[in-house]
Amino acid sequence: MALKDEFLSLISHEFKTPISVIIAAVQAMEALFGGQLDTRIKNYIQRIRQNAYRQLRLVNNLLELARISSGQVKMRVRNYDIVFLSSSITRSVVPYADQKGVKLFFSSTIREKIIGIDDEKYERILLNLLSNAIKFTPGGKSVFVRLSCIDSKQGGQVCVEVEDEGIGIPEDQQEMIFEKLAQVEGVQAPGTGGTGLGLSLAKLYTKALGGSLSLKSQVGRGSCFTLLLPDRQADVLDSVAECAACGPEHPIQRVAIEFSDLYPME
Ligand SMILES: Nc1ncnc2c1ncn2[C@@H]1O[C@H](COP(=O)(O)OP(=O)(O)OP(=O)(O)O)[C@@H](O)[C@H]1O
Ligand SMILES: [Mg+2]
Fold first, then answer.
1. Which domain holds residue 14?
2. Where would I find the Histidine kinase domain in this sequence (predicted)?
3. Which of 75, 109, 131, 246 could bond to 148 as cystine, CB 3.0-4.6 Å?
4. How far is CA 56 from the centre of its chain?
5. What pLDDT does residue 15 have?
6. How far is the CA of 199 from the centre of ligand 1 (A)?
7. Residue 266 lies in a domain
8. pLDDT per residue over 18-57, tens digit each?
9. Residue where a domain terminates, one of 51, 69, 87
10. pLDDT tens for residues 55-78?
């Protein structure tokens, strides 16, 4: 591992432990005294939690990027129904879209499609595209998630589009935003500051899954991110796996971490 990555990974671990302790303490405080606390204290608690989540997202993303560049990330590919997986992930972010007054629609031209995928990595990709779409779309406008299958020279592909009616991305910056720490200049409203790592991670995961991630966008009209994944089943004997994103402990916390910079508490 390069010295820089090793350093980053060490530092990230050192940050992660105290953040996890802060989050656990806040959760315990709410569970034990939630009913007795007055609104002002609840707001402070909410602020601590939101910022701890924010920090955790940054640290997780940095750690993951360091792992990828040192070849340490393994894909756990198993067979999942990509339609069910995508609709579950989309459903899990509805409260955040609602809170902002953004309408969120899911549609699919296929009822079921079993493909080999790493469900957790796919969830990270889709959550990042969704959080961006909701973050950069004003209330009253819409975000669409669409699934379809396409046949191409390279074989069948599953196409997942996340389209928004948001602010759009200038043409000369459309390539750059997939790079680490890159953000479009001048559009970060106070309190909505991400770290510019989400898309670079999404792109690297997509590549590792044998797919591609591309963008079409027009300033003032919106953006459409297109994720193409190979329509190929995993070479495993077991049938369709239970997905981490759909099981009983569906990741309310993972979603909250991804969306933590969207709604600053005042
Ligand atoms: N749907 C979108 N509409 C408009 N701009 C976008 C959209 N998606 C991404 N961008 C631009 O690309 C930048 C990079 O996105 P990326 O997801 O990598 O980082 P981020 O959302 O700022 O932070 P992070 O995902 O690390 O929390 C954003 O800061 C924004 O400037
Ligand atoms: Mg993002």
1. 3-69
2. 10-233
3. 109
4. 14
5. 85
6. 7
7. no
8. 998 998 999 898 889 878 888 898 889 988 988 898 888 8
9. 69
10. 888 888 888 888 888 787 888 899
